Amino acid sequence: MHKIKQIFIYILLSIFTVISIFPFIWMIISATNKSIDVTKGRLLPGTHLVENIQNLLSTVDLVPALINSATISIATTILSLIIASLAGYGFEIYRSKAKDVVFNILLLSMMIPFAALMIPLFRMFGTISQIAPGIGIDTLTSAMLPSITTAFLIFFFRQNTKMFPRELLEAGRIDGLTELGVFFRIYVPTMKTTYAAAAIITFMASWNNYLWPLVVLQSPENHTIPLLISNLGSSNSPDFGIIMTSIVIATLPTALIFFLLQRHFVAGMMGSVK
Amino acid sequence: MKKLLALIMVSMLLLTACSSGASNSTEPEGGSDSNQITIWAWDPKFNIKAIELAKEAYASENPDLKVNVIENAQDDIVQKLNTSLSSGTTKGLPNIVLIEDYRAKSFLQAYPDMFQPLTGSFETEDFVQYKVEATSVDGENYGLPFDTGVTGLYVRTDYLTEAGFSIEDLQNIDWKEYIEIGKKVKEATGKRLLTIDPNELGILRTMIQSAGKWYVKEDGTTPDLANNEALKLSFEIYKELVDNDLMNFHSDWNQFLATFNGGEVATVTTGNWITPSIKAEASQSGKWAVVPHPSLPGMKSVNASNLGGASWYILDVPGKENAVDFLTKTFGSNVDLYQKLVTEIGVIGTYIPATEGEAYKTEDEFFGGQSIISDFSKWAEEIPQVNYGMHTYAIEDILIVAMQNYLGGQDLDKVLEDAQQQAETQIK
Amino acid sequence: MIPATTKQNIQPKPRKYNNKFRLKNGLIGWAFISIATVMICLFYFYPMVQALILSFQSGAGTNLQFVGLDNYLRLFTDPAFIAALKNTVIYLIIQVPVMIIFALFISVLLNNKKLKLKGFFRTAIFLPCITSLVAYSVVFKYLFATDGIINKMLINVSLISEPIQWLTDPFWAKVTIIIAITWRWTGYNMIFYLSALQNVDHSIYEAAKIDGANAFQQFFKITIPMLKPIILFTSITSTIGTLQLFDEVMNITKGGPGNATITISQYIYNLSFKYTPDFGYAATVSYAIVIMIVVFSIIQFKVAGDKNA
Predict the structure, then answer these.
(1) pLDDT confidence of residue A5
(2) Which residue, A59, A210, B51, C250, has most beta carbons within 10 Å?
(3) Is residue B12 part of a domain?
(4) B37 and B82 share a domain?
């Protein structure tokens, strides 16, 4: 009985896997084919991978764009996690009516489509440029500033904090830890999986962020990967082999980060901490 | 606590590192530098290459000016330009920008005073007239005409032969004749006549422009849908193509290319910029020819029309004098440059003196030895000029719904009447 | 609005500290949330107020004029907006519950301690949300083309006799979009559940097993109640995500055929960038989303409404 159940689970998961992975595989296969074969929907691996990579490297500055994207994404992820977890923790552990009101107001910021904020934001950065050009328009900092703090992530940390066993905090306080000490020594290590999940989604969002970097980054040397890929497709006769190759390269870092961090999703970890 | 501090320090370092690095490298980009201009354009294989050639030509005589070409997709340029211009922040704006003809008036009128007038800076009579109209507002010229989207009918000669037609049978035909030929070709070869994206009515635009009509009246603002005979006829022709199963539908660019590269359709009716994509399938060499665009039957309509095309505009930011000089000395007057544009890229310009050049007469083996460039340039001069106005895409989205309703069986007059009403309330 | 609803839910935990400690505690609490609050005020609320002012203006580009409530009234007679609103609500009602159930189900399967290849399965199911939109839209259009693989399969197993017009029929195009969103975001929501499931004490399941609870009972009696805060989180964020849906529609159908799949966000994009820009009216449409989301959030908070939510 148990055996059958296990097999059933594997079959089910395999079906989900095939459905999920198919376009990804197709993308990788396409990276090995000539453009004309990609447009014809060829499903077999080809022999043009090296050629596509060479063409890609010769047509665009891939490496600087990768470095820009990595810098923005890593800095955004680190800062986001710190700021949002502090806030999520603060809102839940030191809950008060006033803070709940503030929290709900902050949630409002998620609800407006970003397109509506773009022009006022751009005007704001125009002003910033005059005061502090180092963080104004056309700097990597300007591309990341608006996305460092999101209500989404604060909300996520707050909801997870609700499941956090408060006895642990009391124990820490009795041991003489300061409030910040309790946060860093007890909360952060216990919530590792939450941080892992938050890191994955923040990195992914930042890595793929398109609209704001597009508007605010003007010089080619500041371009990020999504902007570069968008440029590749701007032709009336785009080379899909090159585009697919660039997409595969652009996707790998996020996939890798997910694969590395998902190991922290170990069942029943909280039990062992307790 | 220490960990936090360390993390914050690291992030701050990253932040300052990239911001200082970025600001260092971007300083020379600003339009304020007197010996630099920046240009935004899209399509690395076409417009970007063209501007690089222009840059070369200009540098031989004016080596002091540094020209930075920045490549962005067209939609991206539209977004960036709109965001910058509407926020009133000129920082980061280029000196020269490429804008599609259908959108030009929208930019020029939505952001008055942001573009540099070019009237008198170059000889407008030397350019194809429809193009001059497309780049002007209230008699003032703002753009230097670039490529033409002159349309042609790309045909598969082998399919035509199979159905008993020769190229001569397709010269200067109208849409009704085209449909009749299409029926026979389909009978003989099983191939549909053409392929279109139902979400984009470019074909309708080419039909009405060949009759000197547009979605708006000559003033550029009054919607001209309900009593527009050319539009009405175009709707009927479209439906006839659908009803006779002569139309293949694709839903994206990729499928569009695959359809004709794969030999699925007998003809392609679109702008001349599709030539490189047609030629991408080398095995079809010699099987293609280009004939004049079909005209609208029973009304004043020519065998020439336009789809797409763009022109260069100068923004009113520091450095504009250099930008004007650059454009007028290259695309504005350099005949040799236009020869190179043809031979090296396949860009067909709209500068009339250039068409006498040798490069325009080159015979193309892929098209059975036809001098397609010279043919296209000849047709380009016949394109009727219309005022594209500010609302081409807004009205077209209304018409896409109207077309759905018409194909679904609703009365054509009523469909267009509704569209007219909707356009009038939406467009201000 | 939201503040009012959650206020009712608050039942402050009894505190055993004295007043002085409470004051100090309160200040520390504010310190914890201060950076985030300042940043959001700066980068969200300031532009939001500007956008609100803009929503009372109309005109092409920079030629804006105050028009009072005209923009808001225009919404009611704008067929494109009404179509977008209808479509968005349809996506929301059908897609969000389906996706959440799928994500929960898969994450529970993947949380199995004895499962082999866990990392592989998880990564595979997560992949759709990082697969580039360009690749994804091309693949989807191939799969769902009239002579595409999906139709061929369905015809082979005799489920249908005529090929379905997945992309060009108004009804089926909506279905395609719903499939596309579900495909792309199920794995994404799965992460939240997977990470939250780690915080569920495993001994509870052990105890339940001893008491003879089967898998379904465990799922409904333990997993769901324990994950309630995260289920609330994902349903609210998915609702917001769907109401702001843009990428999938833009890349697969462009809103067609004839507005059959257009969404509010895509309409905002069209108004701002595809047509001659009317940023005033675009801001009005954006605020229409805000109002709708607030209403939906109140409903969701109420449905989930208990003190832990």
Answers:
(1) 82
(2) B51
(3) no
(4) yes
- Please, what is the angle between helix A225-232 and helix A240-261, to 10°? 160
CB B119 within 8 A of CB B163: no
B350 — phi, psi (to 5°)? -120, 20
For residue B201, the domain's CATH number is 3.40.190.10
User: Which residues face B306 on adjacent strands?
Assistant: B150
**HSE of C133 in the Cβ direction (CA atoms, 13 Å)?**
17
What residues of chain A lie within 8 A of the CB of C26, using their CB? Answer: 94, 96
Backbone angles phi, psi at B40, to 5 degrees: -110, 135
Cβ–Cβ below 8 Å for C275 and B391: yes
| Tokens encoding A221 | 């040397």
Q: What are the structure tokens assigned to B383, written together?
A: 């394109």
Say yes or no for a CB contact (<8 Å) between C167 and B251.
yes
Contact status, residue C265 vs residue C245, Cβ threshold 8 Å: yes
Residue B372 lies in a domain: no
Q: Do residue B394 and residue C275 have CB atoms under 8 angstroms apart?
A: yes
Q: Which residues of chain C have pLDDT under 70?
A: 1-25, 304-309
E strand segments, B5-157: 36-41, 66-71, 96-100, 136-137, 140-141, 143-145, 151-156
User: What fold does the segment set A62-232 form as a domain?
Assistant: MetI-like fold (1.10.3720)
Other Cβ atoms less than 10 A from the Cβ of C295: the count is 12
Whether residue C126 and residue A250 make contact (CB cut-off 8 A), yes or no, is no
Q: Are residues B324 and B229 located together in one domain of the fold?
A: no
Closest CA to B142 of B272, B274, B315: B315
Tens of pLDDT, residues B379-416: 999 999 999 999 999 999 999 999 999 999 999 999 99
Task: Tell me how far apart the alpha carbons of residues B124 and B136 are, in angstroms, rounded to a whole number.
Answer: 11
The domain total for chain B is 2
Domain boundaries, chain A: 62-232
Q: How far apart are CA A186 and CA A180, in angstroms?
A: 10
Q: Of chain C residues 183-212, which have a CB less than 8 A from chain A?
A: 183, 187-188, 191-192, 194-203
pTM: 0.87
CB atoms A120 and C47 under 8 Å: yes
Contacts of B281 (CB under 8 A, 6+ apart): A36, B260, B261
Which of A16, A109, A197 lies closest to C40 in CB terms? A109
Q: Do B39 and B129 reside in the same domain of the chain?
A: yes
Its domain, for residue B260, covers: 151-305+384-426
Mean pLDDT score across all residues of chain A: 88
Dihedral sign, Cα of residue B252, residue A232, residue A59, residue B329: positive
Size of interface B-C (CB pairs under 8 A): 90
Pair A61, A220: CB distance under 8 Å: yes
Q: How many CB pairs under 8 A join A and C?
A: 286
pLDDT, average across residues B159-185: 95
CA distance C270 to chain A (A): 11
> Nearest C-alpha of chain C: how many angstroms from B393?
6
Q: Supply the pLDDT for residue C22.
A: 62
- Is B168 among the domain residues? yes
DSSP per-residue codes, A139-205: SHHHHHHHHHS-HHHHHHHHHHHTTS-THHHHHHHHTT--HHHHIIIIIHHHTHHHHHHHHHHHHHH
Helices of type H across C219-305: 224-226, 228-243, 247-252, 264-269, 279-304
Count CB neighbours of C4 within 10 A.
10
Instruction: Give yes or no for A206 touching B (CB within 8 A).
Output: no
| Partner residue opposite A122 with nearest CB, options B23, B73, B87 | B87
Residues 6+ apart with CB under 8 A from B161: none
| Nearest CA-CA distance, residue C287 and chain A, Å | 7
For C79-304, CATH gives 1.10.3720.10
Check if the beta carbon of residue B276 is closer than 8 Å to that of residue B179: no
Of these ranges, B22-26, B30-34, B187-191, C188-192, the one predicted with the greatest mean pLDDT is B187-191
